[in-house]
Amino acid sequence: MKLPWQERPQKCKDVVWRYTENPIVERDAIPTSNSIFNSAVVPFENGYAGVFRCDNKAVQMNIFAGFSKDGIHWDINHQPINFKAGDIDKVHGDYKYDPRVVFIEDRYWITWCEGHNGPTIGVGYTFDFKVFFQCENAFLPFNRNGVLFPEKINGKYAMMSRPSDNGHTPFGDIYLSYSPDMKYWGEHRHIMSPTPFKDSAWQCTKIGAGSVPFLTDEGWLMFYHGVITTCSGFRYAMGSAILDKENPNMVKYRTQPYLLTPSELYEQVGDVPNVIFPCATLQDIKADKVAIYYGAADTVVALAFGYISEILEFTKQNTL
Amino acid sequence: MKLPWQERPQKCKDVVWRYTENPIVERDAIPTSNSIFNSAVVPFENGYAGVFRCDNKAVQMNIFAGFSKDGIHWDINHQPINFKAGDIDKVHGDYKYDPRVVFIEDRYWITWCEGHNGPTIGVGYTFDFKVFFQCENAFLPFNRNGVLFPEKINGKYAMMSRPSDNGHTPFGDIYLSYSPDMKYWGEHRHIMSPTPFKDSAWQCTKIGAGSVPFLTDEGWLMFYHGVITTCSGFRYAMGSAILDKENPNMVKYRTQPYLLTPSELYEQVGDVPNVIFPCATLQDIKADKVAIYYGAADTVVALAFGYISEILEFTKQNTL
Amino acid sequence: MKLPWQERPQKCKDVVWRYTENPIVERDAIPTSNSIFNSAVVPFENGYAGVFRCDNKAVQMNIFAGFSKDGIHWDINHQPINFKAGDIDKVHGDYKYDPRVVFIEDRYWITWCEGHNGPTIGVGYTFDFKVFFQCENAFLPFNRNGVLFPEKINGKYAMMSRPSDNGHTPFGDIYLSYSPDMKYWGEHRHIMSPTPFKDSAWQCTKIGAGSVPFLTDEGWLMFYHGVITTCSGFRYAMGSAILDKENPNMVKYRTQPYLLTPSELYEQVGDVPNVIFPCATLQDIKADKVAIYYGAADTVVALAFGYISEILEFTKQNTL
Amino acid sequence: MKLPWQERPQKCKDVVWRYTENPIVERDAIPTSNSIFNSAVVPFENGYAGVFRCDNKAVQMNIFAGFSKDGIHWDINHQPINFKAGDIDKVHGDYKYDPRVVFIEDRYWITWCEGHNGPTIGVGYTFDFKVFFQCENAFLPFNRNGVLFPEKINGKYAMMSRPSDNGHTPFGDIYLSYSPDMKYWGEHRHIMSPTPFKDSAWQCTKIGAGSVPFLTDEGWLMFYHGVITTCSGFRYAMGSAILDKENPNMVKYRTQPYLLTPSELYEQVGDVPNVIFPCATLQDIKADKVAIYYGAADTVVALAFGYISEILEFTKQNTL
Amino acid sequence: MKLPWQERPQKCKDVVWRYTENPIVERDAIPTSNSIFNSAVVPFENGYAGVFRCDNKAVQMNIFAGFSKDGIHWDINHQPINFKAGDIDKVHGDYKYDPRVVFIEDRYWITWCEGHNGPTIGVGYTFDFKVFFQCENAFLPFNRNGVLFPEKINGKYAMMSRPSDNGHTPFGDIYLSYSPDMKYWGEHRHIMSPTPFKDSAWQCTKIGAGSVPFLTDEGWLMFYHGVITTCSGFRYAMGSAILDKENPNMVKYRTQPYLLTPSELYEQVGDVPNVIFPCATLQDIKADKVAIYYGAADTVVALAFGYISEILEFTKQNTL
Amino acid sequence: MKLPWQERPQKCKDVVWRYTENPIVERDAIPTSNSIFNSAVVPFENGYAGVFRCDNKAVQMNIFAGFSKDGIHWDINHQPINFKAGDIDKVHGDYKYDPRVVFIEDRYWITWCEGHNGPTIGVGYTFDFKVFFQCENAFLPFNRNGVLFPEKINGKYAMMSRPSDNGHTPFGDIYLSYSPDMKYWGEHRHIMSPTPFKDSAWQCTKIGAGSVPFLTDEGWLMFYHGVITTCSGFRYAMGSAILDKENPNMVKYRTQPYLLTPSELYEQVGDVPNVIFPCATLQDIKADKVAIYYGAADTVVALAFGYISEILEFTKQNTL
């Protein structure tokens, strides 16, 4: 298993740079798909597994398992994940989208946006990416961008989320909640707000947790998306935040500038123009490298790279 | 302790009728209040205790304890409830409003709308209406109208709530959630929706749980509010619903017609015109009587009466 | 049959004045009604018949026949009108409201707002106010305020209407359309617009035909409603217009000032505050008298009076 | 006269595919045009004639005649169509756009969106594409997407349309209306609705008739547009529907997936990004081929192809 | 000349109390008026003069001079003020409303909301309330609530205003601007904002200067209006602010609670329900008394009283 | 100093044409920039100087000085302009954007959109593009697009501006104001409105002054932007207007068609798609040439050219 990686282009001075062969997953990578984006990956066996948001040609949203040797070339199942009942009586959801995946203790937990009379946070798990179990939704609607921590915090599961409304939510803060058992949730804490327009306009409308945080010397490093409202609708860009290791309710640093903003054609043009939406990372802490997976223009999956130490330093130096 | 009561006026044919001396609590019943409304009462010692929403003259919202011998004449404390920390580290809320009160097992539980970067459901308790303890909020924002069941359901606390947005929410369904410990919540189920306009227009914009349900032969009887959007804003009226005794996720009956709609001047004119908002009942099951407390025009507290058996029958006969 | 009438109060200098015993129909005049308003009357046999909008306590809208000896005291049927199929295969409508009635040639034609996947203009007739027949809707949705002329114009039926949207329409002009057979309609002409705010603000948001026009020396006299948008929603007032006798597409005169605006409590307070909505007149041309029926606050029916010659003169002198 | 045609590309598995030389009409194809799109064609003499929407550089909308030998290369008149009065007194319209053309009996009928104090359905005809006659508008405003059937149904002209509001209408259903004489219209029936978001999101905001239906073994085959509301505004895609031959009020099949969605740069980028808007077809029933003309990005005209039998099969197999 | 005055009612503990004979000017006080409200008064000769907003029955807004011996009973001219050109070429305005009046040096200056392609601040003067001169508008649209200081500040005229938009502005702060000559304005300073909802909800949507400030020991005392957005629209209440004597850009104190909120029927019911809008005061500094004139429900003029020292003390004690 | 220039391409028939090497300033022309657009240039010493809007990667807006030999290749300072206090006590602004520059009498005046609790018009000057002085804001918020005339008109400075609201203003007219001293402003006159949709749709939502006017035989020639609201938001195009030489309050001619509309990829795709926003010209009156600088897609700076005489003729021939 080798981390997907490409060195920084010579002329580039940015702390995060794009893969030159982007997008890595095209909108029609499976026969039924209208678009594939906002997807999550995780090391699995000798390579990688992923959970992909594939909207079909009726623009129904669902999540699909996929596999890759190198994290770049993916084989995505042609059928959506068929969940069995986990800790819930029966499984039903109007739709599923924007998955995240994380390994905790003994299994791979998946969270996503689940349609339950409006969007909320669906929860499921798998041991093998073949059989999947769906559990109770974590929260009441309306919610999006549920992202678990990769280990328990003080003995409890911890999940970030972004309370929303039932449409194209024009507001949005990140909260952190806890659960003793992944079934009942509480101890909700507000941890991150959109910024005042004059301080950092790219994240002034709403923000949402993106990738599963991973532990660094500085604390939990997470990539998140921020949104600005232009006269043509929303524009989504990506920043980074560092949360305290012991008490992740405390955000230690958070980038005032973005790390990536839509500026390539595959990010600027598509089903929804001007969207960069990070959902996962792969990292090699020793090698100091991170690969960031993000949805582009609500149409394709793209990849970016960076050195972890540089990103940490940048986040600290450019904190709000 | 005598249930507040007044017989149905001779000419009245309605299943629920108003107290002729309404409002029972005036907007200036305490020196600092702008308005007193959407308040809850409960039998206590030899009379009644209540938790009252008193907005002050800065129109800051807070909740106050009050006491009454007869359920009609109330002495409301001049200082808001000062919560001590219950199962939470420290107590802080931007505001508190629309309380409900219910006795479960050994104490009086209070739920209300708590400001935590937006409205959500606050939870607290008291043994004596002198010392109060605040616990963890039940849910993430945005939520309103959290109403507990008066006993555990299958060993778990049960609470209805109405997921909302951060403004004058123009939508709203009732959900039911469960908790083993009043701290962590899950098993969220959607139980009641607004109605299609043509079926029952008074409750077509949004609905919210109102009074604490009480057990009858038909199941849990609850009074709730429904809202219609007129060209002058929202109008709030009151209906009733009967939930299954064993599985309150199942709504057995629910009134297509309202039981009360704003038609008295104190309901039609005030800080917010045309509002009837039930928050509590007192009932004498044996005597077949119920007294319903409701906020009127977001300004005062009013009282209505009915025979439980008649209301049950009406709800069944006029169900949606 | 005597025209309902009351002389102008001594102090009153207005060209139209209210009946002192208003409202003439209370909101609970029939057992099931939430409100009775926006209703139409017509001479019938030795007295008067009417078609009344009675919203029931589920706030479902329907129309009911009623009868009166004096035009003031009304007996309204407790059951809504049950239409048989006229020139249409089968009768179905989601709701019916805001009726108008007019006698043409051999029968009483009724028009109203009919729910057909949105509001449009329903058409029906009766010979006796006992048996009613429903015909094809005149127009596609979305439309409201369909008002027929009491005789054919150049051999064709003529109907005013107010194209709308599917909500609380924030715009609205009056059009006039023609039909050879009351089934197929065409020759649509735009005849009246809302006014610029600075010219006549009470009718600057939208206008709608009100009463069935009747012929005078100056042309067709009609009372219509105009709407202004305040920071508390819409306010409805009443004006008059005179349309050319030969070519009613031509509006000859139209009042810049209103004739009636909400200023009595029953017009200012109710289910929708600040509404005056004229739907019918009774007139005695010889006696120079007209009685105007209008809905007040979307809750009750009220009555106003005037001398036709004075109203004509006022309309000409105060025309836009 | 040869049907424009290009075989399906080898790798393509879609039931409808694009012409590789798209767009076939550029935005500046005539000297005065800002954009040319949403246009209609019909077989004429030894080739084809068309009616084109050409917005000029003041972005005034008007319709222009054009001619082609092969249906692909078009000569569009530099002057807009100058209508003479048909069955109407005098011709006036604020603007004209989105034309459709169909031959019925003895002449070519044209329908379009006509400005008459708001958009409604204009109607006109020509025998030779040189002299044009304008008739009465079919309906009251606000309406768009009026599409005639190519023959009378039960002795009457039949027209689909999409009642609208006076702006960027955020709703929209398809109705079917009838006329004995192309002047007076009635018998309006609701035939197609937008879909629930979870069933087929690309057509969940509004839909509108597109091409003139043509008769197949399965019934009338029509291509229509469906719209989804993204956080950047509307996105328009194309589906197909099959209406019952005898009673086209009955929609027999309708595609849950789209047939075409914006995914080429000329569809994704332009005056209005992400628009595919079908307005006409040419078909060779014997050869089983259909050529579909559609506006792209409100800027240019493009062409797509398909086998009729495949489209019918696809529509039946993938029906909602 | 005697200050209008009535002692505080016995039971009343408020710092400001209403005149028991309110409203002092009825909506029909002149023959043409629909409503008279938001008006200003000033000592003049042996009594008082005023400038009154009288909307006529076409709901056109204009300002009228009026006179009173006692400040309570008013004779209002039946014709609006007819301005001659002051420092401006010619006088034209689409409408005039919400006047304020103040004597500075040698004349009475009047400011009001002037229609100049949208609302802005009109300026005029009179020496005798018979002949009036209109000057250049102070500012560009959109602006409302222009209120002059009664003397020059550091040699320059000083005016508060409330930048607005062209509708029912949902935001609004108070600015202070300066002019050497009452013709050219600059040195604009932001001085007061709406409050956060949780701090003082009655003034959380927008605020606007009300009465002309007068000098006290504590500084300039001004009554202003604050607005909250309810689910039925705006509600207007009144507070007080004290500005620094030397540098009125500095707000020293400002009431967190309101001084008056709509709670009498003439304030709660009318053309716009729930409005208290102060526009002027009369004060007797020696006698420590102030009379406050305010518009009620956009329909009538009402009067309230208070002791200046008490109001100062209250403002200081209850400052934000 | 040579005017930047490129001859009209052979096939082009437009009166204004683009530079083939557009954009001339890329979004990342300085290390910190997210985008560089809506910028102004002026002849300076032996070449040109400019003031550039460079949004940084936090999307904070500020203005930067830049220099060029040829007007095409620019060196932009890496630090924003650091203003010293001019006629104002101290300098503070929340943000600065959309600058214009003009030489009057003895110095270069700069106007821009200044954040002062909302956007308004900032004013400053420099003699050398090294030291800059900031003066009092010209107007109250909310305002944008302040453009000075290059000489005094009747002894007074003259500035166009576009009163706005505090968001993505959906309306907007151009006013002209005067000042004796560049500090106090008055004599505000409304000079240009958006057009009715049917007359010139590209400028029907709002308009704003663009480049500094320059004097021609026909009067002051100015390039301005006009905006249309599509279902995907705003689209910005460019027109020209000629103002009377003596009395620039009088607009003599104004183009009904646009001169430039977004049709190149760098205008159609970017941070805000479909924007052409002119902010400056360089002209050689003798040579009859003008170079127009405009922001494209809120991302880059582009350049267009034209012959002044042709533009004048076009504006006269195609006037509204």
TrEMBL record, chains A, B, C, D, E, F:
- Name the domain of life: Bacteria
List keywords of the entry alphabetically.
Glycosidase, Glycosyltransferase, Hydrolase, Transferase
Q: Name one GO molecular function term.
A: hydrolase activity, acting on glycosyl bonds
**Cited InterPro entries:** Glyco_hydro_beta-prop_sf (IPR023296), Mannoside_phosphorylase (IPR007184)
Classification via SUPFAM superfamilies: Arabinanase/levansucrase/invertase
- Family indicated by similarity: Belongs to the glycosyl hydrolase 130 family.
This protein is called Glycosidase
The scientific name of the source species is Flavivirga algicola
Lineage runs:
Bacteria, Pseudomonadati, Bacteroidota, Flavobacteriia, Flavobacteriales
